[in-house]
């Protein structure tokens, strides 16, 4: 999806073009060669083996992709090239960082605010613990391994999510030699050695370019079976960085990746304050949820999805005190490599100051 518009941020604005691509744009072919309909209400089945082993690319390949993207990051363009799914080997450094990210996933939600152009966190506004979602819990094998029950009576609930993350944290800390396992945990590990088959970390990240520079990166918070098609499975590491930036032409821009939007990650983060200028969503297949739109009056929500029916642009309008979201029609729709490419013309001067 590509959006074109004029008159951005008044007379001094530099932003002229936005390009947004869907999730999973950069993965190994074969491991996820097509996006299938995912039904979280049904137990997952073991997928057939893949030549790639994992959809995740290695970090060297990721770095080469980022270098290539830098070349096509033009002046006055905001470029969000979908997401890169990559793996990291288990080292003391990567495990230490992963533990921090996983601990944050079950920590109280904190509220972000902007001061002096930088995004900060107001810890005094923390709310109740809210683990990032993980549809990995819909795999009964995973549920049994991590929760110790053969079925999933609490699958998808906060308690189940917290238990999953706590188990992964303990496993990584044990590998990192930070904790000793008690006899029962040691027995469980000996009985299920496949737990140790997870020999790498997997991350799903988007990298944001503006005016030829890479200014921001954002990691997906919620795992929606991101390695469902893989013959090998790593430990999914949720993103730690905040989802909001003010470094794009003084606009307040928020990002979500797939399940993050369905779970309302930005909505929960912002609370009652819905004041984004732009909300940008990269997804494989999630629908648009107006309840989770958090743009201000005149603001735009841009969603690029592998599912054509979910790719859309909405503008927030006020009807009395009620917020309504008007779908913007593309001015041109083309096809490139069998996929849809839509062009929109937007006027960001309509966003309320």
Task: Explain what you see.
The protein has seven helices and 17 strands. It is of the alpha/beta class. The chain has one domain (2-348). The strands form three sheets. Strands 1, 2, 3, 4, 7, 8, 9, 16 and 17 form a nine-stranded mixed sheet that branches. Strand 13 and strand 14 form a beta hairpin. Helix 2 runs antiparallel to helix 4. The chain is globular. Residues 1-11, 30-52 and 150-156 have low confidence and may be disordered.
Low-confidence stretches: 1-11, 30-52, 150-156
Total domain count: 1
Distance between the termini: 26 Å
Q: How helical, in percent, are the residues?
A: 10-25%
Strand content: 25-35%
Average residue pLDDT? 78
Q: Helix-strand pattern, N to C?
A: EEHEEHEEHHHEEEEEHHEEEEEE
Structural class by helix and strand composition: alpha/beta
Apparent shape: globular
Rounded to the nearest angstrom, the radius of gyration is 21 Å
| E-strand count | 17
Biggest sheet features: 9 strands, mixed
SS element count, helices? 7
